[in-house]
Amino acid sequence: MKFKLLLPLLFAVPAFAQTTIKQDAAIKQMNDEVSAQNIETIVRKLVSFKTRHTLSDTTSKTTGIGAARNWIKSELEHYAATSNGRMKVEFDTFTQPAGGRIGKPTVLKNVLAILRGTDPNDTRIYMVSGHYDSRVNNVMDSASVAPGAVDDASGTAVSMEIARVMAKRSFPATIIFMAVAGEEQGLNGSTNVAKRAKAEKWNVDAMLNNDIVGNTYGMENGIQNNTNVRVFSEGVPSTVNGDARALASLINNGGENDSPSRQLARYIKEVAERYVSHLDVKMVYRRDRFLRGGDQTPFLQNGFTAVRFTEMNEDFNRQHQNIRKEKGVDYGDLPEFADYDYIQKVARMNLSVLANLAMAPAQPQNVGVSTSGLTNKTTLKWSTPETGKKPAGYYILMRETISPYWEKKIFVTGNEYTSDYSKDNYFFAVQSVDADGHESLAVYPKPIR
Question: Residue 355: what are its φ and ψ, rounded to 5°?
């Protein structure tokens, strides 16, 4: 009997580096409280209003967008009752002028649940949103039944369910849970909030938009996927558009893949996968899906950091469809076709990121990379955050220029660090961290002398 030598096979097995995952017990507990059953109840309640079209009935107590927004506000007020006065719920009311998909001047109302931060010296605001309006094939059809279970009762349910859980807790920074109107008519609701935030000088550190996050079946390809979620983030910031000097600086520094929103997307992937089992966050390097847009866009255009979450494979037989059956195919965005366990994962992802950010110290300020001389070393300098608690230290982040994700974290306690690795061959960033490991968003350095 001959024996084959199997030793080479042993060496053919790939080796993986070990990763230590440290979870905050409070964040884990909050995630455990996020309920798929509650999410389904919210979605089905929103569907019960028949249509939530932006131009639909506002006087009925049971049908139309008026009934829907009144119920959302009332439900959020129930959650706020558990906050010991920290959460306030309000309508963000404005009149959208006639034009585009708005036939006449129309009063629209966003619903905002504001969970005030406990640190009076911390001005940071974090925002999470879903749009509660719905539509069918004809975008101007305000009468037909438009259930909008996935687009976007799912995103609204994410915002509402994590508001329920987080209302009972306190955070140094402020968190705003939003349900916005008018998305299907031209991003009307989110545009109003973004403009208001800019005019009133809100210190918005990050905005998370959840739109179409409840389906796990891919039309045409038949892929069933309940483990992936896409995060869309722009590379070149919208505010650079038309600014020749800012664009030239971006090109010279190689920062096309290191915008604030791209840093937020990397942060989301790291933190969400730290807390949510069987979740793989897929970074998509564009502002939104091909030739499409969402409620994160007005925030980006007003200079804020924002991203969009969307399911991995969309079913276009559900989106913007009149309810019907043709040639054995069901059309319409009905609640029985949503995956509530998947929406629960998306909600936990949002909660993990918001909680970690709101507990963390603020970003370091004036982050720069020294250009005083030619060297193969890299010297980074920064200032202590101007708002909130003082960090316990900082992480220096490193990655090769071809890598999409940060590869190394180096802890330091001062405000300067020199690396033996060259800025010609590596990208760097700096983030604040507290004693419990909660990290701020990473800041990409600017050249300094």
Answer: -65, -45
Give dist(CA 223, CA 49) in Å, integer. 31
Q: What is the pLDDT of residue 22?
A: 86
Find the radius of gyration of the CA atoms of the chain. 23
Name the token pair of 348: 């936990």
Residues 6+ apart with CB under 8 A from 301: 194, 238, 239
Query: How many C-beta neighbours within 10 Å does residue 200 have?
Result: 7
Query: What is the strand order of the sheet 416-419 is part of?
Result: 416-419, 378-383, 365-370, 446-448
- Quick check: 187 and 211 in contact, CB under 8 A? no
Q: Which residues of the chain have pLDDT under 50?
A: 1-14
**Cα 2 to Cα 384: distance, rounded to the nearest angstrom:** 69
Question: Residue 107's beta-bridge partner residues?
Answer: 95
| DSSP secondary structure letter of residue 326 | E
Q: How does pLDDT run across 409-434, given as a tens digit for each residue?
A: 999 999 999 999 999 999 999 999 99
d(CA 337, CA 218): 12
Structure tokens at 220: 């045409």
What DSSP character marks residue 390?
P
Q: Top-level CATH class of 25-359?
A: alpha beta
Residue 312's nearest CA partner among 212, 240, 239, 393 is 212
Distance from C-alpha of 94 to C-alpha of 180, rounded to nearest angstrom: 12
Q: What DSSP element (H or E) covers 95?
A: strand 87-96
* The residue type at 212: I
- Evaluate whether 169 touches 359 at the Cβ level (below 8 Å): no
241-259 per-residue burial string, b: 16 or more CB within 10 A, e: under 16: eeeeeeeeebeebebebbb
Q: Is the pTM of this model over 0.85?
A: yes
Residues of CATH 2.60.40.10 domain(s) within the chain? 365-448
CATH hierarchy code of domain 365-448: 2.60.40.10
